[in-house]
Amino acid sequence: MTSAATPAYRRLTVEERRGQLLHAALELFAHRAPEDVSLDDVAEAAGVSRPLVYRYFPGGKQQLYEAALRSSADALNRCFAEPPTGPPTERLGRVLDRYLAFVDEHGTGFNALLRGGSVAETSRTSAIVDEVRRAAAEQILVHLGAERPGPRFGMLVRTWIAAVEAASLIWLDEGKRPPARELRDWLVDHLVALLAATAARDEETAEIVKRLLAQETPEGPVATLARRVVPVLGEAAHLL
Prior knowledge:
By secondary structure, the chain is mainly alpha-helical. The chain has a domain at 69-233: Tetracycline Repressor, domain 2. The chain is 71% helix and 0% strand. The relative contact order is 0.09.
């Protein structure tokens, strides 16, 4: 009886090898701060030699970290891509589901990235993070139907994105409590509350909110929040 043939060895292409090294680095940066990851760690995780890592990333760990950060930024940007159909709050809920899943998977690396202060932080890494925030703002504005917002509405969206980042970091610090779905719903409610408060002072926001409400459903997040808030506000009626 003949033995099974041994699969032929296939040499990786340049792009495949680079992808392999990036994947290994991303796994390490996801669980450890950049300063705690060495090129030896990356080489060991990828099953290659340190000189091979240098061949593909001659700039050393800094170049590898920036490449890994760019890869993560692209993945985060994809989290915010959502077809512009259906109720806006439901679209944003799906966006947040993907975003929180990314945060969950990349915990330590995400924490180090947004908190800053890493020895690997440079003007280039900061620019990549800022690019993610700008891209997120642009996508949220599309979902809200305001791609060219006035100053107040633009500030509203940037404020909400900052709140989402802060909540994500606190969520990690608190052992990922409450559950991601509950955090998602609260962040959607937070945006709805910001829209309502800003609409009371800004005509542009008021017009946008009217258009958004016309796309919502009686069972959706806006109506659900309203049913919960009205009784609470009713207790403050004596102040009116």
